Amino acid sequence: MSASDRDLTGGSVSNDPETKSPPEVSPPTLGDMDADAFRRHGQRTLDWIAEYLRDSERYPVMARVGPGDVRAALPSTPPQRGETFEAIFDDFEKIITPGLTHWNHPGFFAYFATSSSAPGIIGELLAAALNQNAMLWRTSPAATELEALTLDWLRQLVGLPDGFEGVIYDTASVSTLHALAAAREAVIPNVRDQGLVGRSDLTGIRVYCSEQAHSSLDKAMILLGLGQSALRKIPVDTDLRMRPEVLAEAIAEDRASGCVPMAVVATVGTTISTSVDPVPAIARICTAEQIWLHVDAAYAGVAAMVPSCAHILDGCDEADSVVMNPHKWLFTPVDLSALFSRRMDMVKAAFSLTPEYLRTAEGDRVRNLMDMGIQLGRRFRALKLWMVLRHFGAEGIRQRLAEHMRLARLFAEWVDAHNDFERLAPVPFSVVCFRAKPAGMGTDEAELERFNIKLLDALNASGEIFLSQGKLEGRYVIRLAIGHIRTAEQHVARAWELIQQHTQVLTGH
Ligand SMILES: *Cc1c(COP(=O)(O)O)cnc(C)c1O
Question: What is the pTM of this model?
């Protein structure tokens, strides 16, 4: 029997004998947009997207609106009656689009450049259509199992040993929070039950990272109730890498004063300069001291797929957990962060809690994703990553990452060869930290900073490129981050041209 032979609703309109008069005709149709209209509007939207991806350069990369502009252009009260899709789409084009900063523009060099590639977009579209909520295995066996499979592919591609299991969260900040929660579970007795407040058995907890580590660690410390002051920031060497001998001293000092070292976070690809902490040396310390080692490879981890970068995850086989973000440099639409751990049992021990209504007969034979973190419901994020990996293949991804790194080295050479510019950090991946230092300006840091702020503002106002800034050891740097799937040599060359032109204008040469 086919579905159309059955009445699946099973119900009928109320036959209440008290009803005096039948309802006026039939009520307006309820339910969703009809299938034909969906096909029409969906097709139009897909056409728009295809053009957008091909021609995103016709938009200024950084939004040109001022604060409040977008909101002021839209009605402040909600529509009482439905509107036509044409009217909605019209406002999308006229009001929303100008308020966008175009991450999918090949001149996007700010922060970490990312891309939503076509296969990833299709994956997101399908995930929205299917609306899977993979809280339990039985609420989406495919989402649950595809997540495990796809992350195992990624694990193999970056060369992590097979003891690592993966789980997807939205962002690296949340992945790291879960890793540190697992470390806390492993180190602090009864923390689930007793919490941390008013405990005389806890004299002090410490987590270690380098001075260059990401601010998400501070946030995790805040949320885990450990406090920011329990995060000890270890100095870096001249290449901005954590100094392991100082880490060892800090741990010894803290143990001597009665503190418990809970975790060390090493970074592979720090946020400003993309420096790589010496993970093998840090791992040796953690193994000897029995301290949880978490590796934050949010941006750079995927580069381990490229043979010349395979070493960047050296030492990670000793780590307890490693995070990398396919939504950063693996052409996957935001958001998708992958946490790998050799001790996923501790993640589960930290979070698993099953109320009666969520018990299922599958029991321990399956992974119920709700056990792996703070949230109950979960999006079907694995679908887009699976499609990205299949569409490009390992070879295709390696070639794209290698090309981004080649372009970054090329840009670094141009900077190095020019008297009015200086580079402020090595270039292990696809980010270059540099600044203008026009001949005759001298070495006053404040003056250099003011000049480079003006330069950056002028560049970003050009609409052709978008760059961001940072501070390295007190020095202001402009960052050029290459990572968009359509960024080619011509875009990097154009950026360099604009940088030189605007520097000349600002110096009055
Ligand atoms: C980008 C980044 C993060 C934060 O990533 P989200 O996914 O935005 O939370 C954390 N650590 C490092 C090293 C990063 O580069």
Answer: 0.93
